[in-house]
Amino acid sequence: MAQRKPIVAGNWKMNGSVELVSEIGSAINECKNEQVDIIIFPPAPLLLKVVEFGISVGTQTVSEFNSGAFTGELSAELAKQLGATHTLVGHSERRIIFGESNESVADKFAKAQENGLIPILCVGETEQQRDAQETEMVVAEQINAVISKLGIAALLNSVLAYEPVWAIGTGKTATPEQAQAVHKFIRDMLSKQSEHVGDTLQILYGGSVNDKNSKSLFIQPDIDGGLIGGASLKADAFVSICNSAL
Ligand code: PEP
């Protein structure tokens, strides 16, 4: 079995400030460790500020287009030029609030890779879908949209984040067993198409992870770290979550 390096990613959403970059940047630089990759996803205007701290940084979305008359959109090429290494694609807030479909998320995934960014593909079911036992179907459809467009090998240069929508920003974390079951389902599903992808793909858990529950989630065999929202805005909590992935 492959040794998968854990990742702890902080999604700041539309929060934070220049001062917060300094506070969290310094805290991360004190605790940085070769054994965990830490990536911050700040609002785009703060990208360069994070780069100045020598911390890996990504965008929270990218446009599926190269350039042109797309007011307000975020270019993968320019993000790369500014030092971004990763981008989130298909975060549930983008899917639900901004109407992104599985197809447009697949296009964004492709555009990110074309420009040398590593996409973190976010997938996950709503509470109604979980109650209707549709979790596996929904997650499979979200992942298969990317595979149908780009082929299974495209996942080799990407990361997945399982984020149940009902757990995001709600304080209702999936139990380690619930999260592990979906991660294992995803890994088994991918292994049927490519054992190598199934074995090596890093799959993060996201949804109300905090410094109290992170360890119990991260020790699950198919969970390779976390995508952290609210708790990534507090230096102490975020550092302690990063340390719990060691
Ligand atoms: C997220 O936004 O990806 C997230 C997981 O948020 P939170 O940790 O606040 O639930």
TrEMBL record:
Keywords: Cytoplasm, Gluconeogenesis, Glycolysis, Isomerase
Binding site for substrate: 11-13, 169, 208, 229-230
Recorded GO MF terms: isomerase activity
Top-level EC class: isomerase
EC number(s) from the headed UniProt entry: 5.3.1.1
Pathway the protein contributes to: Carbohydrate biosynthesis; gluconeogenesis; Carbohydrate metabolism; erythritol degradation; Carbohydrate degradation; glycolysis; D-glyceraldehyde 3-phosphate from glycerone phosphate: step 1/1
Cellular localisation: Cytoplasm
Active-site residues from the entry: 91, 163
InterPro entries named among the record's database cross-references: Aldolase_TIM (IPR013785), TIM_sf (IPR035990), TrioseP_Isoase_bac/euk (IPR022896), Triosephosphate_isomerase (IPR000652), Triosephosphate_isomerase_AS (IPR020861)
Keyword Transmembrane helix: no
Swiss-Prot/TrEMBL catalytic activity: D-glyceraldehyde 3-phosphate = dihydroxyacetone phosphate
Pfam family, any one: TIM
Principal place of residence: cytoplasm
Stated family: Belongs to the triosephosphate isomerase family.
SUBUNIT field: Homodimer.
PANTHER family: TRIOSEPHOSPHATE ISOMERASE
Function: Involved in the gluconeogenesis. Catalyzes stereospecifically the conversion of dihydroxyacetone phosphate (DHAP) to D-glyceraldehyde-3-phosphate (G3P).
Name recorded for this polypeptide: Triosephosphate isomerase
Biological source species: Pseudoalteromonas aurantia 208
Gene designation per UniProt: tpiA
